[in-house]
Design goal:
Carbamate kinase; eight-stranded mixed beta sheet
Length: 366
């Protein structure tokens, strides 16, 4: 369960509060982390770092003491803080002769199949060269309003771990484990060393929002564990400032909470499952039962269409599954409820006579 001897590819996510000290850069912490990562690299491991901290560092540079919540100000702080953040990583890793690379992401990059594959190839090349990629959300251009934001780097770390086939996600934060209830409010709260399944009780035990310049909380870490689990990737949640924490995790010491994977999906299935849907196709109960039996989605089972999506986009099927559709929204509205033969009549003989094939349908079952 905690035997990581065969673990080859590791994603390490470091939170804002963990990286900073007294609202400023903690250079000693950067050196401390990179010393541990150097040990992993020397052991033949590949390491990708997901970092927070750009907004916090930018806010510190501007001497802002209150939490930055307004979108434009967060973007400005990120633009100021990102080069400062990378400067610290370069200095810390440079002591060991390790080259780092900056990769800034938006949700659209991972949702688009072509750009996702380009990203995957770039990271594979960097890792093959012995480079440590440092990834962060591109907060200067990502906003929830335009649909390009991940929402937090907890989710980003799990998506990256999933999409690059990582074996282990280490999430370093300012709490030492998942508890059965809020430890700040309940003196008898107990740490949960192992989570085999994320139940409703586990979700209820999760806490609230993150620290001053952060956006994550325990709930976002639970969601990250769910995403990682779909890739067969174990996740360890631990306190980022505990002594030699990365080294101890890799040695199998029972620190923090380990989340075990429930199922392992193919790379393509994970891409579909974790992509942002462009719309929703409402289907009837008979069609839903057929899909669970690995049948294609036919237009006869379509009840209604929501959104303006194109062929090849990822869509929701009710609230039960995601799929890559072979028909765009306008065409599907005309074909909904009709026999599959109507597809070829309407769209031409070369067109698929189904809305989605089984290989392009993934149920949202955790």
């Amino acid at each position: 369960m905690r035997d990581f001897a065969q673990t080859h590819r590791i994603v390490v996510k470091i939170g804002t509060h963990t990286l900073t000290k007294d609202a400023g850069v903690d250079a000693a912490y950067f050196r401390w982390v990179t010393d541990q990562v150097k040990t992993l690299v020397d052991a033949g491991k590949q390491v990708v770092i997901i970092t927070s901290g750009a907004i916090g560092m930018g806010a510190g540079q501007l001497d802002l003491t209150a939490k930055v919540t307004e979108t434009k100000m967060r973007q400005a702080c990120a633009a100021i803080g990102q080069p400062l953040l990378m400067q610290e990583y370069r200095k810390a890793f440079g002591r060991h002769g390790i080259t780092v690379a900056q990769v800034l992401l938006t949700a659209e990059v991972l949702s688009n199949r072509k750009t996702y594959l380009n990203l995957r190839n770039a990271i594979e090349t960097l890792l093959g060269l012995g480079v440590v990629p440092i990834l962060n959300e591109n907060d200067s251009v990502s906003t929830a309003e335009i649909g390009t934001a991940f929402g937090d780097n907890d989710k980003l770390s799990a998506l990256v771990a999933s999409k690059i086939d990582a074996d282990l996600l280490i999430m370093l934060t300012d709490i030492d484990a998942l508890y059965d209830q809020n430890p700040h409010e309940h003196a008898d709260a107990k740490a949960i060393p192992t989570v085999h399944e994320i139940t409703d009780q586990i979700v209820r035990s999760a806490g609230g929002s993150g620290s001053r310049h952060a956006t994550g909380g325990m709930r976002t870490k639970i969601e990250a564990a769910r995403i990682a689990a779909q890739a067969g990737c174990r996740m360890v949640l631990a306190h980022g400032r505990a002594k030699d924490i990365i080294t101890r995790i890799m040695a199998g010491e029972e620190v923090g909470t380990i989340f075990m994977p429930k199922r392992k999906l193919s790379n393509r299935a994970r891409w579909i499952l974790n992509s942002r849907p462009a719309g929703t196709i409402r289907i009837d109960d008979g069609a839903l039962r057929a899909l669970r039996n690995r049948k294609s989605l036919l237009p006869s089972g379509v009840v209604s269409v929501e959104g303006d999506f194109k062929a090849g986009d990822i869509v929701m099927l009710n609230d039960a599954a995601k799929a890559m559709t072979s028909i765009d929204a306008a065409e599907l509205k005309l074909l909904a409820g009709k026999h599959s033969t109507e597809i070829k009549k309407a769209l031409g003989p070369a067109h698929r006579d189904v809305v989605a094939i089984p290989e392009d349908i993934v149920f949202i079952d955790y």
